[in-house]
Amino acid sequence: MLNKPFFLLIFFLIIIQVIFSFYYSSEIINQNNLINQNQINLQSIKIKNQELEEELATLSSLSRIEATASQKNYKNLKETINLQN
Amino acid sequence: MQNSRSKILSIALTFCFIIVSFRFFYWQVLKAPELKEKAKNQTYKLEKLLPERGKIYSSDNFPLVLNQTTYQLSLYKPNFKEDLDKILDQIEQTYPNFKTENSESLEKFKNNPNQKWITFNSALNEKQKNTLYIPGIEFQKIEKRFYPENSMAKDILGAIGKDLSGNQIGYGGLEAFYQKQLQGKTGFVWGPQDATGKTILNKKSWSSDAVNGRNIFTNINRSAQFYVEKLLQKGINEFSADSGSITIIEPKTGAVLAMASLTATNSATISSIRNPAISNLFEPGSIFKPLIVSMALDTKAIDTNYICTKCNQPHTIGKYNISNWDSEFHADSSLRDIIKNSDNIGMSYIIAKLGLNNFLNYYQKLGLTQKTGIDLQGEAKPTVKTEWPEIDLATASFGQGIVVTQIGMLQAFNTIANDGILVKPKVVSYFTENDKIIKNKNQKEIQVFNQQTIKDIKSILKYSVENGVVAKMKPENLEVCAKSGTAQVAISGSYENNSSTIASYIGFSPCYNPKFTMIVTINNPKTSPWGSSTAAPIWYELASKLNDLL
Residue B5: exposed, middle, or buried by beta-carbon count in 10 A (0-12, 13-18, 19+)? Predict the structure, then answer.
């Protein structure tokens, strides 16, 4: 007679243990996935930042200023501005 | 019968049980440590966290060297889910000219069914990589250095390559000299890994963060460096020279403001890991004369009223005759005229009065017997004679028979600009590490000449510029203390009449509280061999620019 509740208790304990282990292992996996995703995002932001820094430096470099300045053709001011008294 | 069968069976079972038990004991007890270690190795992994290499900036905080992440594209035929041509079209849309850039290797890859894998040299950026998630395309991350000003200051910056372990390592210039500071510290993560090979962080995991390399902030004035390279190239071409070098420093601190070495075609004969301004030894010629006069004045071997009474004829020492560069004689030359006329005969008498011991003492004090210690890799150590016959001492008075590096000569001459104090040249001003500023240590300063000597030599140099052959080149608004020099290049230990020359001009401006000290060296100019006609015009053009810039 006493055997029945004892077996039920054991059975429930096993079920609880299984649920707990499933819960925690999935939690660990989720958190690790989140860390991995954040690391990927961080890496991507770092590379984007690197590319922007590169672009800014290229655009403001003396070599570029020199190259573009010599290609500029300014119109004679007299041709475009007609000042009247 | 049945009883004996069951007996045999139970004995056999017991025997098997014992064998199995022994086997279990063997694996679980005796082999346990070894297997435990193997299991750990399979489930745990050590991952390297690579640090970012430090960047290099000019004095206006402009990046001269940045890091660039690119991706190298590879194709793997067995993973293709569509036709190769379709894949290539998609790549071409994302990365124009991909097919033309790699036409040869692509043709081979297409026509060779046995070739399953190919890697291309084309460097794709992050955005391009992210648009190409196609089966069969693989990417490999490549870390490179990026130079926004292209080849500007390449001798100062150096280059990077890979060591035997595949790690980035600096070659030449700042990249090599400050390798330790630039490389940073590799981090590690040790922990169990999941089925995809990613590290799972748990209580048993262990990690140490990567420390990025220090950023380097140099003293390089970007505008000055730009002009130096432009005008040096122009000068080399105009004077049909083989090559040339220019270095500019700040007199008070020794901060290197600009440094460049170029060849006639700006070709690769000068590599980025060899910087001629610090690694080439040359005979300085007449630019050395002001230092000898300063030594003689400082030791009171002569005074400012010195007159060379024997300068009306060659100075004969043994079997050698010392004459002047223009074969003229200047009878009763005053001290300032000896410098103005660059009189070799007068100088040979002055060094005789100075004496060998005094000369060697100052030669050492001026740092000419050793490396300057500039913070760039590849500096050459000057060779110093151990024996000094009278003729060698005489020729040393006009800078022949002794060798210096350009930076060594500039450091020595700068003592005149800096009130007699020798300061070490320095490229780096400070470092930053996680926003923390770390100053570059200043070297010990040495007082070489006294104040009166400096006052006298500055007055002589000023007179020499304003009344010498270079007077017409000097812009009116500029006060200059400088000296030209032309050194013959010795061939097998002797100087031939047609031997090539090294033309130089060295000086500072203004004479009092100078803003800069600069040396220009032109190797083998063919339009004119003289420093006053080749190096001096470059010096003055640069000096007027620097006067506005600094």
Answer: exposed
CB atoms within 10 A of CB B389: 13
Picking from B49, B53, B67 by the largest number of A CB atoms within 10 A of its own CB, the best residue to mutate is B67
Q: Report how far Cα B414 is from the mean position of its chain's Cα atoms.
A: 21
Domain boundaries B222-549, corresponding CATH code: 3.40.710.10
Going from N- to C-terminal start, the domains of chain B cover 222-549
Residue B491's pLDDT band (boundaries 50, 70, 90)?
Answer: low
- Which runs of consecutive H residues, i.e. helices, occur in chain A? 3-59, 62-69, 77-80
Give backbone dihedrals phi and psi of B71, rounded to 5 degrees, phi first.
-125, 130
> Which one of A32, A44, A54 has the shortest CB-CB distance to B66?
A54
- H-type alpha helices, B262-381: 276-279, 289-298, 335-340, 344-354, 356-365
Tens digit of each residue's pLDDT (9 = 90 or more) over A10-45: 999 999 988 988 888 888 778 888 888 898 899 889
Helix axes B406-417, B289-298, angle to 10 degrees: 40
- Residue B270 neighbours by CB under 8 Å, 6+ apart: B155, B243, B261, B262, B263, B276
CB atoms within 10 A of CB B165: 6
- Confidence check: pLDDT of A47 > 70: yes
- List all residues 6 or more positions away from B221 whose beta carbon is below 8 Å from its beta carbon: B58, B59, B60, B257, B258, B549, B550
Contact between chains at A28 and B66 (C-beta distance less than 8 A): no
* Residues in CB range of B369: below 8 A, 6 or more apart: B363, B382, B384
b/e per residue A37-69 (b: at least 16 CB within 10 A):
eeeeeeeeeebeebbebbeebbeebbeeeeeee
* Secondary structure (3-state) at B258: strand
Chain B residues within an 8 Å CB radius of A29: 194, 200
Q: Look at residue B394 and tell me whether its pLDDT is greater than 90.
A: yes
pLDDT in tens, B165-217: 778 899 999 999 999 999 999 999 888 877 777 777 777 788 888 999 999 99
Burial B206-219 (b: 16+ CB within 10 A, else e): eeeebbbbbbbbbb
CA separation for the pair B426, A73 (Å, rounded) = 42
